[in-house]
């Protein structure tokens, strides 16, 4: 029994330490976490505040309802000689109360929730735009107007581990973010309103980073919008949240938030690697980003056929009897 108890205690300690939060990931899950994370953006904090308001309203309702129920069971128990009122049918006053109270509560909850939803979809006054395109099974990021783009897929170490059949270990630092590491992270500046235009190339995906406070579907042929404003530097992880095929579980997302100075330095390095675009091309890309809207992408018009590429029809041979 002692050996079993020691083994159970060791397993519990190991499972708790597996969710320990590194210093570079301020919004990661932590041991014994029961509530949702507050996040590091204005949108995530609005969602957290709405959640807490609804939670405490539910707690109060539960206390009142169960309190009244237990009081009635204790006060009017059979052992005290209580007898049911067989002539009771209904109470108009009671029915009015239990109708009006829920309506008032719902209105009080819906008013701020609606205002928060409107604010979460307001992408005006954004300082930069990032286009996110989902593929099976990776993400493509384009910094519109900057000439920088790259793909981001599951890190080779995680991919090799999952295909080897081995079990990742917390003692191995390289395994601590198993299936949550990528080869190229999305780098964003802090204290900057970033607009996202999100779409897909093949099937429906969903771009989701819990610490940012929102999830947006990536649908082929449609552009969805979202925005974020990260206020704390660090690394924030997410995953594709829409079943998109056999490797759906292997489409992680990693966002690295850095200072504005560090971001500009990183952006300059990426431009140097890719070759800076011409001013005309950068302007055209920025204009396209401004024109992108949630209504969707205009269908591409078919190109005019090139007569020079049209094959010459063969002459029909005469039919012989």
TrEMBL record:
<dbReference type="Pfam" id="PF02790">
    <property type="entry name" value="COX2_TM"/>
</dbReference>
<dbReference type="InterPro" id="IPR011759">
    <property type="entry name" value="Cyt_c_oxidase_su2_TM_dom"/>
</dbReference>
<keyword id="KW-0812">Transmembrane</keyword>
<keyword id="KW-0560">Oxidoreductase</keyword>
<dbReference type="GO" id="GO:0042773">
    <property type="term" value="P:ATP synthesis coupled electron transport"/>
</dbReference>
<keyword id="KW-1278">Translocase</keyword>
<feature type="domain" description="Cytochrome oxidase subunit II transmembrane region profile">
    <location>
        <begin position="28"/>
        <end position="124"/>
    </location>
</feature>
<feature type="transmembrane region" description="Helical">
    <location>
        <begin position="53"/>
        <end position="74"/>
    </location>
</feature>
<dbReference type="InterPro" id="IPR045187">
    <property type="entry name" value="CcO_II"/>
</dbReference>
<keyword id="KW-0813">Transport</keyword>
<dbReference type="InterPro" id="IPR036257">
    <property type="entry name" value="Cyt_c_oxidase_su2_TM_sf"/>
</dbReference>
<feature type="transmembrane region" description="Helical">
    <location>
        <begin position="95"/>
        <end position="114"/>
    </location>
</feature>
<dbReference type="Pfam" id="PF00116">
    <property type="entry name" value="COX2"/>
</dbReference>
<comment type="function">
    <text>Subunits I and II form the functional core of the enzyme complex. Electrons originating in cytochrome c are transferred via heme a and Cu(A) to the binuclear center formed by heme a3 and Cu(B).</text>
</comment>
<keyword id="KW-0479">Metal-binding</keyword>
<dbReference type="InterPro" id="IPR001505">
    <property type="entry name" value="Copper_CuA"/>
</dbReference>
<dbReference type="GO" id="GO:0016491">
    <property type="term" value="F:oxidoreductase activity"/>
</dbReference>
<dbReference type="InterPro" id="IPR014222">
    <property type="entry name" value="Cyt_c_oxidase_su2"/>
</dbReference>
<keyword id="KW-0186">Copper</keyword>
<dbReference type="GO" id="GO:0004129">
    <property type="term" value="F:cytochrome-c oxidase activity"/>
</dbReference>
<keyword id="KW-0679">Respiratory chain</keyword>
<feature type="domain" description="Cytochrome oxidase subunit II copper A binding">
    <location>
        <begin position="125"/>
        <end position="269"/>
    </location>
</feature>
<comment type="similarity">
    <text>Belongs to the cytochrome c oxidase subunit 2 family.</text>
</comment>
<feature type="signal peptide">
    <location>
        <begin position="1"/>
        <end position="20"/>
    </location>
</feature>
<keyword id="KW-0732">Signal</keyword>
<dbReference type="InterPro" id="IPR002429">
    <property type="entry name" value="CcO_II-like_C"/>
</dbReference>
<protein>
    <recommendedName>
        <fullName>Cytochrome c oxidase subunit 2</fullName>
        <ecNumber>7.1.1.9</ecNumber>
    </recommendedName>
</protein>
<feature type="region of interest" description="Disordered">
    <location>
        <begin position="272"/>
        <end position="321"/>
    </location>
</feature>
<keyword id="KW-1133">Transmembrane helix</keyword>
<dbReference type="GO" id="GO:0005507">
    <property type="term" value="F:copper ion binding"/>
</dbReference>
<keyword id="KW-0472">Membrane</keyword>
<dbReference type="GO" id="GO:0005886">
    <property type="term" value="C:plasma membrane"/>
</dbReference>
<dbReference type="InterPro" id="IPR008972">
    <property type="entry name" value="Cupredoxin"/>
</dbReference>
<keyword id="KW-0249">Electron transport</keyword>
């Amino acid at each position: 029994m002692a050996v079993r108890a020691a083994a159970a205690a060791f397993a519990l300690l190991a499972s708790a330490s597996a969710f320990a939060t590194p210093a570079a990931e301020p919004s990661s899950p932590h041991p014994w976490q029961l509530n949702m994370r507050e996040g590091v953006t204005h949108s995530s904090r609005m969602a957290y505040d709405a959640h807490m308001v609804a939670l405490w309203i539910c707690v109060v309702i539960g206390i009142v309802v169960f309190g009244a129920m237990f009081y009635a069971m204790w006060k009017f128990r059979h052992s005290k000689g209580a007898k049911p009122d067989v002539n009771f049918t209904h109470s108009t006053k009671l029915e009015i109360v239990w109708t009006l109270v829920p309506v008032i509560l719902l209105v009080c909850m819906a008013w701020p929730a609606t205002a928060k939803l409107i604010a979460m979809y307001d992408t005006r006054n954004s300082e930069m735009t990032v286009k996110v395109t989902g593929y099976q099974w990776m993400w493509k990021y384009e910094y519109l107007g900057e000439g920088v783009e790259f793909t981001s897929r599951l890190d080779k170490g995680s991919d090799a581990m999952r295909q080897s059949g081995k079990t990742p270990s917390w003692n191995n630092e390289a395994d601590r973010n198993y299936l949550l590491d990528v080869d190229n992270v999305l780098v964003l500046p802090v204290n900057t309103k970033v607009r996202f235009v999100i779409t897909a190339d093949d099937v429906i995906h969903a771009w989701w980073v819990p610490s940012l406070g929102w999830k947006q579907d990536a649908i082929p042929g449609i552009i969805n919008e979202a925005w974020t404003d990260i206020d704390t530097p660090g690394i924030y992880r997410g995953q594709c949240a829409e079943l998109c095929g056999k490797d759906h579980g292997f489409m992680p997302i990693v966002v690295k938030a850095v200072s504005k100075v560090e971001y500009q330095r990183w952006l300059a390095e990426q431009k140097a690697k890719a070759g800076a675009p011409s001013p005309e091309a950068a302007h055209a890309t920025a204009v396209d980003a401004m024109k992108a809207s949630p209504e969707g992408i205009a269908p591409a018009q078919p190109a005019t056929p090139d007569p020079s590429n049209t094959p010459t029809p063969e002459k029909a041979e005469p039919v012989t009897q």
